[in-house]
Design goal:
Layout: H1 9-24, H2 31-44, H3 52-60, H4 70-80, H5 84-95, H6 104-117, H7 125-136, H8 165-169, E1 180-182, E2 188-190, H9 193-228, H10 234-241, H11 255-279
Antiparallel strand pairs: 1-2
């Protein structure tokens, strides 16, 4: 009867190191399949040393495995450096607008550049618009961040019908200007200071409501996902459900950070289970 090859603690450390290297290079395959490939090889070739370098080469040579593109991998790294709620709000904004490309590698590149430009800012429509302007602005001494890359916009269809000189000269502005008010007698006047101030305050209030609404939706989504996470037995379910992250200095639960912490715990529990199966 052929016995299985038993792995030493040092060899298991090498497999863990190999997984870290492979994930950093974009491996997006389930852990169970990777463990099966590694174990099958070393059970067949028992004299082969188990090293992280060899395992990386072995997995990279396997056909049919799933890998993240360079653009998606870069976005994942950038998102990990920012609050989970901010990344979720920005991704939701991009998916629901029509100006920037939101899918494929160009979509991930847009998300990466916007997330970097918005670091430290609240994710609102006004702030996103300002960030787009800064990214697209010509390089100069007022550039806010080095190494910026231009965004990818949805291509508009080319116009084939003739354009008159009058249409070319029209910049879209209202004939009487956007700040004119019609009087009861039919004449027009400029808006006074109080009217202009009232409009500005209304616009700022609407912007704050939009930002608060988006943030609230992101928190609700994070809470729902966190409460749905489960382990593989009652003990793991209890460990995951008992993990909370609070806002510093308060007893208020930070649901986006709680979701991230529970996902890390779930992954750790899964990894422990796979490792235990691997060495049996």
């Amino acid at each position: 009867m052929t016995t299985r090859r038993e792995y030493t603690a040092q060899e298991l450390e090498q497999t863990t190191r190999a997984e870290e290297l492979l994930r950093a290079r974009g491996l997006d395959e389930g852990q169970e399949r990777i463990v099966d490939i590694i174990d099958s090889h070393f059970q067949m070739y028992r004299a082969t040393p188990v090293t992280a370098e060899f395992i990386v080469k072995l997995i990279e040579a396997q056909p049919g495995l799933k890998w993240l593109s360079a653009a998606e991998l870069e976005y994942n790294r950038t998102a990990a450096e920012n609050p989970a709620a901010a990344a979720a709000q920005l991704a939701n904004w991009l998916a629901n607008q029509k100006t920037l490309i939101s899918t494929g590698d160009e979509g991930f590149l847009n998300l990466t550049e916007l997330l970097r430009e918005l670091r430290g800012y609240e994710i609102t429509s006004a702030n996103i618009s300002s960030a787009i302007d800064r990214i697209q602005a010509p390089r100069g001494k007022f550039v806010s961040r080095e190494g910026r890359r231009p965004l990818h916009f949805v291509q508009t269809p080319r116009r084939t019908s003739p354009i008159s000189p009058a249409a070319k000269a029209d910049d879209g502005s209202p004939f009487l200007g956007g700040d004119m008010v019609r009087n009861p007698d039919g004449s027009y006047r400029n808006k006074n200071y109080a009217e202009q101030k009232s409009e500005r305050e209304a616009a700022e209030a609407a912007s704050k409501r939009t930002g608060a609404s988006a943030q609230s939706a992101a928190v609700r989504d994070a809470k729902s996902k966190a409460e749905q996470l489960r382990g593989n037995n009652h003990s793991e379910d209890h460990q995951i459900a008992s993990l909370f992250v609070c806002v510093p200095g308060t007893s208020e639960i930070n649901w986006p950070d709680t979701l991230a912490a529970r996902l890390r715990l779930q992954k750790s529990l899964n990894k422990h289970r796979e490792t235990a199966r691997f060495i049996r």
